[in-house]
Structure prediction request, 489 residues.
Amino acid sequence: MQRTPLYDLHRSLGARLVPFGGFEMPLSYADITTEHHAVRKEAGWFDLSHMGRVRFRGRDALKLALAVQTADAQSLMVGRTRYGMILNERGGIIDDILISREEDGYLLVVNAGNRGFDQARFVEAAKGLEVDIVDDSERLAMVAVQGPAAARILDLVGLGAALDLKYYRFGNYRVGSLPILVSRTGYTGEDGFELLLPAAEAGAFSERILAAGRPLGLIPCGLGCRDTLRLEAGMPLHGHEIDAETNPIEAGLEFGVRASQEYAGAAALARVRAEGPKRRLIGLSTEGSHIPRQGHEVQHEGRPVGVICSGTRSPTLNRNIATALVLAEAAAGPRFEVTVRKHSVEGSLVPLPFYKRASK
Amino acid sequence: MTRPNSLKYMKTHEWARLDGDFAWIGITDYAVQHLSDLVFLDLPEVGSDIMQNEPFGEIESVKAVSDLYAPLTGEVVERNDRLMEELDILKRDPFGEGWMLKIRMEKKSEANQLMDEAGYKKTLDSDNH
Prediction:
């Protein structure tokens, strides 16, 4: 089991640690619900160092970026970030990523559990190209500050210049001699920032963030609330809403797929587009004390039509919410039944996302 | 939290308090702490039967659901309906106000298969290694 550079800090903060993606990661420090509400109302600090951070540099960096993932890397301007996916030849999603255009190449942030697979594909696709694949996952740590107070907290720790960033943009800043890449991105449905910084300084700087933010309601947050926050915000989690058997069209992620076709899986996706997807990702709201969970069967008019991808009790909405992949012809619902172990539970179709923050 | 000496425990973290022909049943402080973020509790109706080592109910947390296992066989004579509405009681007083069921025991000798406090503590210590 691997540890992030912030492992000692997690221990000192009293985290409950669980295995995730090959890492010992904090599930929560206080409890999931408290941390969830802190991010919606004030702010939360997260360690995301388990995620992979890979750079493509050199003359053919763009070629490689186009070959391995679906986002339009060509039109991406320096300082901007896009959502994309790595597909297999069947159009299935091997991983979902953020790709950022830097002065001298591209930065890809990939899921912890897929780091190995992704790296192997990058190396394979780079054959014959003039490109360096730089894995910065060990050298750099990654932390996030998410929530309505996130901007004020960044200002308090000397990153006020980053407040000019718009959503899905990033920049390189310095606090004293410490170089920090700040990106206005997140996985919570709130305003927030993700920071890349040298691993050796990440603990001290995180303590500085936590100390500065505490009076504003900032608390350390684990992967437990990261999951409930992202689910409320309708964001997919690899291994739940999306996997190697699910394509971006049925998952409702076509916005992350460019039109030009030189990436793996493009031909398969073109067929799905022409024929229409067989399944659709939908949102469900259910009643009662049995919460639908991943793998539970979904029925429509008495017929099995799909499975639950993720389900939880929504702390913000105070009702049970779930995502499901169902046959396209049944996706309009609006009534479904879910078999939650031995119980049959009524569900109704609700539009995704379940939660959207009020716009300023 | 002090774990009462007078109770009988299961390694699945349920407890039983024996009282003549009756037993109260609940879950331990350790279970409550580890389940965390409890949202629903599903318990059998008064009048139903529960069987030793078989699931008698379910407890849902934000993250997952867990079965509750019966420490003893018997008929449910009382159910703590207030607990089902107010799961925070479990955090405060899992061995008292946080009781779940009162049953009329069918076979009192079954209690011999349960652990005392020291035995339960030992299983927790070995779990944490």
